[in-house]
Amino acid sequence: MTPTLVRRHRPHPSSSSHTTDAHARTRDWAEIQERMLVPLYEAVYDRLDVGAGTRLLGLGCGSGLALLMAAARGAAVCGVDTDERRLDLARERLTAPGAPRGDAARPARLGPGGPENAWVREAAADAAFTVVTAFEPLSAPAAEDPGGAVSAAAAALADAAALTERGGAVVLAGWGPPERCATSGVLRVGARLADPMRSPGYRRWRPCGRDDLEELAARAGLRPDGSGRVACPFGYADMDSAVRGLLSTGLFDAAERATDPTQVRKEIIEALHPHQRADGTVWMPNVFRYLICRV
């Protein structure tokens, strides 16, 4: 499925106020950026036959779009994320009138943090998960691991696997080859501008290597059982929507701290110009990779 171009939902504040408005960034993620990975969600759900009888745990569930899609297929869903604002939006989506309920006997449950939380373990004690997803592109193994991000990701995956029934699936996702991801050039802008920021928790984008997901799975003690690639083009109605969507990922936060928001926005626009069409829309073909592991 190819995502539709995103239209503006509301007038946006000035660039200076927008960069300091975390709530606006969260809304931009939910309204603009999150849907870019819908083809990935659909491909994985189709391959694993997610539906009635599936008990799914979403790691880094964001504002809940992937969970909502799983619930629409009849799955019982739980989700965790470290971003409370995104979780609030996920709750809104999953409890809104007319929202799909999935397994009525097991209402959707959402909470902060990761699979180590007590409520996640309680949910698994009732019935072990059959599918665990980590759709947010994870940091893959690298010589540089500021703040131990890779080790933390492997630990979270291992914790989630321990709550999954034997034979259940744990899904990892990452960027495809840089030469097949037009957005790579734009994301490198953030990495370059943020270069001085080497403090713990610093989030630096880097392209995935051919075996990075497999190496991360090995660290988590998971057994690979197939993989796939999915086209996930990033399409935006105009330059402003593209900039807002990309900023909402958090991958430019360190760049804004290292330089200034105005400079970051200017350089993102420059990097996006080759991808702007004559009608003003912005279109960047990308390929994402997923790895299915078995517990």
UniProtKB/TrEMBL annotation:
A biological-process GO annotation: methylation
Coiled-coil residues: none
Keyword Transferase set for record: yes
SUPFAM superfamilies hit by this protein: S-adenosyl-L-methionine-dependent methyltransferases (SSF53335)
Keyword match Ribonucleoprotein: no
Superkingdom as given in the UniProt entry: Bacteria
UniProt keyword annotations, A-Z: Methyltransferase, Transferase
Domain Methyltransferase type: 57-99
InterPro entries: Methyltransf_11 (IPR013216), SAM-dependent_MTases_sf (IPR029063)
Residue numbers spanned by region Disordered: 1-26, 94-113
Pfam family, one: Methyltransf_11
Protein's recorded name: Methyltransferase domain-containing protein
Organism in which the protein naturally occurs: Streptomyces luomodiensis
